[in-house]
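Structure first, sequence second, as always.
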């Protein structure tokens, strides 16, 4: 088994859970914040989607997220994230899910196909866990888990049932 296969399986699971955690949430609820210190679902979902799109280049993909400017601020230090801003019109959850689902299958397929040589090559993007492509994608899988967990808590706060793993 390739060293990327467990990570690839995580991305495949996240591709499904992302949709599950947003199931049944109308866009008006998606912009509700637990407090001023907590991001809303539209921001978190867009941020996670934007992150996947930002890491397509090492996979040889030329895909872009139309709403990247809502989530990127290249005047900030890496990872160049723009904080939530009440003056920004964030895309609807429906629109975010459309972009997520366009990328998800090819993203997982490309990651699954990375060779040992590619995985050990130095990434142009350094992450706290190391400098290789394997380090990068392992970290991004963890990042997605973290945010899907946040979205799951917000889902419950909105009065909806727990996220399904089915």
């Amino acid at each position: 088994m390739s060293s990327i296969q467990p990570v690839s399986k995580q991305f495949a699971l996240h591709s499904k859970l992302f949709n599950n955690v947003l199931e049944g949430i109308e866009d008006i609820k998606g912009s509700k914040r637990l407090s001023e210190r907590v991001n809303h679902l539209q921001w978190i979902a867009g941020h996670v989607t934007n992150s996947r799109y930002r890491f397509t280049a090492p996979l040889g993909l030329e895909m872009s997220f139309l709403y990247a400017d809502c989530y990127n601020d290249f005047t900030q230090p890496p990872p160049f994230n723009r904080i939530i801003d009440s003056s920004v019109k964030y895309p609807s959850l429906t629109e975010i899910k459309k972009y997520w689902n366009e990328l998800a299958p090819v993203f997982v397929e490309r990651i699954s196909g990375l060779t040992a040589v590619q995985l050990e090559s130095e990434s142009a993007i350094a992450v706290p866990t190391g400098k290789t492509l394997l380090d990068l994608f392992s970290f991004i899988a963890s990042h997605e888990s973290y945010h899907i967990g946040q979205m799951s808590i917000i889902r419950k706060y909105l009065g909806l049932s727990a996220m399904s793993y089915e």
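Margin note: Helices lie at 5-22, 27-30, 41-54, 93-112, 116-120, 133-157.
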